Amino acid sequence: MKIVLIMVVMSMFTGCISTNKTSSEEQLLRINYVSTNDQKARSYFVYLPRGYHSEPKKKWPVMLFLHGNGERGNGNDELDYVLSHGPVYEAWIQKKDIPFIIISPQLHMFDFDNKGLGYIDNRQPSQIPKRIVSGVPPRSTSFSTEKKINRSDSIADMADVAPLLPMGWEQVEDDLIVMLSSVKDTYRVDHSKTYLSGLSYGGFGTWYMASKHPEKFAAIAPVVGWGHPDFMESIAKHKIPVWQFAGGRDSAVEIPYFYAGIEKLRALGHTDVRFTVHEEMEHDAWTRVYASDDFYQWLLSHPLESKN
Question: Does the model's pTM come out above 0.90?
Fold first, then answer.
């Protein structure tokens, strides 16, 4: 793969470093880059955890996080939309102590602002959650639904099902690899603890990136995005630990599609696979996932056997 490595320029977003000698505060940085997809200047977030600067000898786990469809944007004045959900929302907005360096890019719009999608067309900057000085802001209410909790039959034959949603994270695969490499070169990263997670569109992107670069990730956690059986061979071959999440009442990414990929991993002899269905939750089951401690502890329990 030919990748054009571009210089990154770091600027502090709003975080600060504590002046005391105990523990430095978390930071949110904007990293500038030029996308290999369209050769345009963009930015992505890098979150540095509490204690990063006050523990100069410590190496930190790193997580690449891929957001959902509603947070697409131009990577400049729209980048803050990626703070709406996921681990950076938990760490930066809700001030949860997450001991990871988190890479959080923004997927290009790819004309999705002309498709009549209300959750993109009607979004406003005022809806972006803001970090406050004292305490944390209230969380958004959970998605409402009248859908009954039913055990649906799985779709076993996925031969006629497209493996990816249109114009997703696979379009910026090269950018993601450059970001990951750049962060590993720039910050004190524990190379044996490199993780990948994403929600909805980002869940599909998680399966895709893991299938294409299985040697890079110690574990993956796709959230409310199923994996197509076609992507499972390399994941099983490299025995990447998987924790898949779904919402049992999800009306956007429906539960019957989740089982075939998980079953393909089992058929290929891969045993380190978890599949958790939050039966009573809608598409926003990600809120419970990324707010939990178990999620991050599970990731950290899986280091790579060898550094790459």
Answer: yes
pLDDT given at position 5 = 40
Residue 307 in domain? no
Average pLDDT over residues 59-80: 98
Q: Show the domain range for 25.
A: 9-300
CA distance 143 to 291: 16
d(CA 211, CA 233): 8
269-293: pLDDT as tens digits: 999 999 999 999 999 999 999 999 9
Establish if 30 belongs to a structural domain.
yes
279 lies in a domain? yes
